[in-house]
């Protein structure tokens, strides 16, 4: 299907490869072929799924007179780190509103935020959750008083602009499926702010890709993500009414959050280490580790029976491994 995409900045190294996991398929596939779409390879400091969204968001900012980007997330937010480097690359100022107490020594994504020159403001979780809208308004007003114009980007870049990133990615998946001989697949992704899942679900429908999209939630619950992905899709259609709104059916694999967002059990760290040894593939404990574990559990339960191919979208997150290094037991 031919879509009228808005302008984007070419920030990501795409297309990313689709990699067959031969040994993982033998170990865990139960007759399925397991594949990974390597969106962890979208670049170096701009790695991961967030860059696809930022290609469209940063172009929107430039085209509408914004010179500053404000966004939010946890101390180890992949999205915030990607925004910091996207802004640096494009000459846009970036201000990050981060949830948590600033540590004595910056590590992982937080260290990279600082290297990229982003302004960082940290807030205790209770204040962050209760006042985030006011904090965005405060800082937008702060920049306006100084003659600047700041764009507020929601958590994860997940809105009607950002979903274009994974609508477009479904064109790549069409080529991937053709080259790999995939006639039908289940497509599994971690979902933490909903935008990647919304974009994939829209993209699969718009491009008639023979796939069923599943989000493994790493926070909140199934109903939250059913509502959030639907809201992002509605926002997309409201912003771009000439685009056809397809039949939108989000699906969530719930039950794998564990003790909470960013908190992984020992079995997740064991899986990360095992997959690293087995396939040379590194997951992270916040997003992809939980999602991959959830996918394997669903395979065991027969969720995907009748379909040979399962494609896991690797959304990145490697920099989040280092601050949790002490949880690996060697």
TL;DR?
The protein is of the alpha/beta class.
Write structural notes for this entry.
With 330 residues, the chain is α/β, with parallel strands linked by helices. It folds into 2 domains: 199 residues, Rossmann fold (3-Layer(aba) Sandwich), CATH 3.40.50; 108 residues, Rossmann fold (3-Layer(aba) Sandwich). It contains 10 helices and 10 strands. α7 links the parallel β7 and β8. The model has no long low-confidence stretch (mean pLDDT 97).
- Taking all Cα atoms into account, the compactness measure Rg is 19 Å
Derived from helix and strand composition plus strand pairing, the structural class reads: alpha/beta
CATH topology value of the largest domain? Rossmann fold
Strand arrangement in the largest pleated sheet: 1-2-10-7-8-9
How many domain units?
Answer: 2
How many E-type strands?
10
The CATH architecture designation of the largest domain is 3-Layer(aba) Sandwich
Largest sheet: 6 strands, mixed
SSE arrangement, N to C = EHEHEHEHEHEHEHEHEHHE
Which geometry do the CA atoms define? globular
N-to-C span: 49 Å
CATH class of the largest domain: Alpha Beta
Helix content: 40-55%
Overall mean pLDDT: 97
Poorly predicted ranges: none
How big a fraction of the residues is strand?
15-25%
Helix count, per DSSP?
Answer: 10
Architecture blueprint of SSEs:
Layout: E1 18-20, H1 22-28, E2 33-38, H2 50-63, E3 68-74, H3 78-90, E4 93-99, H4 108-115, E5 119-123, H5 125-144, E6 150-153, H6 164-180, E7 185-191, H7 195-206, E8 211-217, H8 222-239, E9 252-253, H9 266-279, H10 288-300, E10 309-314
Parallel strand pairs: 2-10, 3-4, 3-6, 4-5, 7-8, 7-10, 8-9
Antiparallel strand pairs: 1-2
Helix pairs in contact: 2-3, 2-6, 3-4, 6-7, 7-8
């Amino acid at each position: 299907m031919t879509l009228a995409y808005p302008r984007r900045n070419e920030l990501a190294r795409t297309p990313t490869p689709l990699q067959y996991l031969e040994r993982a398929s033998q170990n865990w596939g139960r007759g399925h072929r397991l594949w990974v779409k390597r969106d962890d390879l979208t670049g170096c400091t701009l790695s991961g799924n967030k860059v696809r969204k930022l290609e469209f968001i940063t172009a929107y900012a430039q085209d509408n007179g914004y010179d500053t980007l404000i966004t939010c997330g946890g101390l180890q937010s992949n999205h915030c780190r990607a925004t910091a480097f996207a802004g640096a690359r494009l000459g846009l100022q970036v201000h990050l509103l981060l949830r948590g107490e600033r540590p004595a020594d910056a590590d992982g994504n937080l260290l990279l935020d600082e290297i990229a020159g982003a302004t960082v403001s940290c807030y205790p979780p209770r204040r962050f959750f209760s006042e985030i809208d006011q904090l965005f308004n405060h800082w937008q007003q702060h920049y306006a008083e100084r003659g600047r114009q700041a764009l507020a980007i929601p958590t994860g870049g997940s809105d009607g602009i950002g979903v274009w990133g994974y609508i477009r990615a479904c064109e790549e998946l069409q080529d991937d499926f053709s080259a790999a001989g995939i006639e039908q697949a289940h497509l599994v992704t971690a979902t933490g702010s909903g935008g990647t899942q919304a974009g994939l679900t829209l993209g699969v429908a718009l491009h008639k890709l023979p796939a069923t999209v599943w989000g493994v939630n790493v926070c909140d619950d199934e109903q939250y993500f059913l509502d959030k992905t639907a809201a992002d899709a509605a926002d997309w259609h409201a912003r771009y009414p000439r685009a056809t709104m397809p039949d939108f059916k989000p699906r969530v694999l719930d039950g794998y959050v564990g003790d909470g967002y960013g908190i992984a059990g020992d079995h997740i760290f064991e899986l990360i280490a095992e997959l690293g040894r087995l396939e040379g593939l590194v997951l992270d404990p916040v997003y992809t580790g939980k999602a991959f574990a959830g996918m394997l559990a669903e395979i065991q339960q027969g969720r995907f029976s009748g379909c040979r191919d399962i494609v896991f979208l690797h959304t990145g997150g490697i920099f989040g491994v280092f601050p949790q290094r002490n949880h690996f037991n060697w």
